[in-house]
Amino acid sequence: MSCHDYIARHSAPLAQAVRRFLAREIPYRQLEDLSWQLLSHWQALPNIPGDKQPDSEQESVFWHLLHSLHLWDEQQLIADPWLRLQLMACANFLTAEGPCPSHCNGSRP
């Protein structure tokens, strides 16, 4: 699986999980488990790119969203209105339901 294939395959499930968490439909633990699984799948790729720069806006937003889930704790993700809007903007972009959030630039782990 290529880097591009990885992002294409995992963007929608990540976005859906973030949306469901923000809507209080799934617990934080489930979102956290998914984020660790995604990082584990990335590490298991046979040819992980050495370059930390994403190849596309989608990849950049994907990594920003995934890193945000590890940067902020559960209470911040639930209670901070600005952070919630940012996460939702990222999720919307990853599912082609919104513009690219220009302030959400991530890099590969």
Polypeptide structure, described:
- This protein has 5 helices and no strands.
- The protein is an all-alpha fold and 109 residues long.
- Helix 1 (3-22) packs antiparallel against helix 2 and helix 3 runs antiparallel to helix 5.
- The protein starts with a helix and ends in a 15-residue tail after the last helix.
Distance between the termini: 17 Å
Q: What gyration radius follows from the Cα positions, in whole Å?
A: 13 Å
Helix content: 55-70%
Gross geometry = globular
- pLDDT below 50 for ≥5 consecutive residues: which ranges? none
Major sheet size, sense and barrel closure: none
Number of strands: 0
| Strand residue percentage | under 5%
H-E string: HHHHH
Total helical segments? 5
- Backbone structural class: mainly alpha
Mean pLDDT: 93
Write the layout of secondary structure elements.
Blueprint: H1 3-22, H2 28-43, H3 57-71, H4 74-79, H5 81-94
Helix pairs in contact: 1-2, 1-3, 1-5, 3-5
Which key terms come to mind for this protein?
0% strand; globular; mainly alpha
